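Now read this:
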Amino acid sequence: MSSTVSGGVPPAEDLGRIHFIAIGGAGMSGIARIMLRRGLPVSGSDARDGELLGQLAALGAKVDVGHDAAHLGDADTVVVSTAVRESNPELAEARRRGLRVLHRSEALAALMADRRAVAIAGTHGKTTTTSMLTVALQRAGADPSYCIGGQLVTTGLGADEGTGDVFVAEADESDGSFLRYSPSIAVITNVEADHLDNYGGFDEVKENFARFVDRIVPGGTLVASADDPVVRELADRARGRGLTVLTYGEAADADLRTTAFTPRGLGSVFTIPGVGDVALGVPGRHNAHNATACVAVARALGLDLHAVREGLREFGGAMRRLERKGSAGGVEVFDSYAHHPTELSADLSATRDYLGERGGEGRIVAVFQPHLYSRTRFFAEEFGAALGLADVAVVLDVYGAREDPEPGVTGQLVADRVPAATETVYAPDFDAVPALVAGLARRGDLVITLGAGDVTRLGPLVLDAVSATS
């Protein structure tokens, strides 16, 4: 048998028959897809049917809808996500049988065991940077395997097996699962307070990122934002371990500097001194920083930077990352996964740049759904301030996800904190929002739906409502 990866998890080829509980989720289905592409036997179940289940079945997986202990069959290994509860009948049966049970991140670590792993971490920008890097490396001929927390607009895939020796993965800090990886190259985009429902405070968040730096293999590389004070401290920690450090950003002492940033429609152009001009098809200064991080990784991998720049130019974006949903009646609609105040500010600033580039008189109509009661309670003031960058703010009620409601914590908490200069509406009735937004929006306006919950469903509904009233 092959040696185990860090934490005692065998390499993927030694896991036997692998069963995924909740296989239809974006992260779980991606890992299952890669395992299938490697010829490994995979089964799985999910509470409801969906397109991803059909794709996995077409690749050879045995897929069941609903959860039942019988679905385990003759599985040797069971893979679960944080969301799977111990009461799940399949997990309970796996425990009873004494089967190997792996967290999703452990299964991903098993897949990365024999590759040059590149892990992208940070409070914000992980998905976009991982997506950008994947496309850029593909263009440079590296053909990496990849596992992203979202889906590429161009292919609709969030994970796939490549022929090269590089594996690019988004490293999630929300539940500490990024501490299961041992990357050759790690990227840290920024470190801020978030997921405080899982962490005792910001100090604990910072400590976990420090532990992540310590997971980089000896002789490895840290690609670190020079613009973030916490990441600069982590860069010093990495140097103290003898790791190679490449910094990036607008700071004067960055190894790769993002300079001369200029918005251009739904994209931008900027310059990295010593590398050249870079053109992007996605908007925002933050995305120029993400792209510069990708160039730093490519340099660490020894790839052709001209081809990498071409890949960045061709990058079509990731789904739900300022994704354009369409236009109707002179109103454009975008959708964003932004669910932290910093992310809202970045996306609203990028859309403001876009409106300026269009040269019109349009306004920004932000439709925001707070995600998690704890996050809403922690950041209500900051959410309100961020929404002040819009001309009109429509605040929905909280999408609780895995949390139970908290007394007094509703979307009103955020709406009450939006600056008076921004027209603000609290809209707790989700079904009434499309017509409400259609009534607020005017020709030339830009509507952006924001949040990690089911607010993403509203974009097409708003377009239909605008069409009906035009």
